[in-house]
Structure formats: structure tokens, C-alpha cells
Amino acid sequence: MNSMKIKNISNRKLIASDIEEARTSFQKSKGLMWRKNLPDDYGMLFDFGKDRKEGFWMLFMKIPIDMIFINSGKEIVDIKHSIKHMSLNPLTWRIYYPKKPARWVLEMKAGSMKRLKTKIGDNLEF
How many CB atoms lie within 10 A of CB 98? Predict the structure, then answer.
């Protein structure tokens, strides 16, 4: 288990206590591919070094996830709820971009943000 924790300081809830950081290009491109389940307190954090509109897709994903886009001020600027895996039909493929530039993206089990009452505009600590 990683010792990093992510807390929502706007509503005082712990979002994740087990964070896996995607640091290398390989880790970022692989993401959560092939995972069959995720614990409630687990998240994968992608750091892009500065605010930008990085796109994500769900290729080879086995489970739905929530995607939380966080700017360099650690404010949530967008949330994609319960994103489902891609089908084999390329016409259905989609890339998910944040509404506003974000430095970090946190991927968690689908439904986590609603369960934790976390919303756009909340501030985080990590």
C-alpha cells in the first residue's frame, strides 16, 4: 500500500488511502487496463506536471471508473462518472477530456465520487 492519501478538504472526507502513481509514460498509457476490480479506497493518480487538457480512453478496461480532473491548485475542475469500458466496435470509441485544464487525473472505482459526495469545485489535499 502506498502511504499517499487524498482528502477532500471541502467536505472533510477521505477520498482514497491507497494511491498508485502513474509516473512513467508506460504507466500512464497502461493505467488501469486489465484490472478486474478496485477496492473502495484505491485510486490511480496521473501527474502531467502542469495544467492541460489530457485525453483518456478506456481501451482494455474491464470495469467502469470515475475520473476526477484536478488543477494545479488541487481544485476539482471536472468529474466523469461511471465511465464504462470500450466495446470492440471502433465507432463507439471515445476519448474523455476535462472541461478545464488539469494537472492531475485520479481514477477510482465507479460511483466513488457520488458515494463520497465529491463535486466539481471541491479542494483536495495530497
Answer: 23
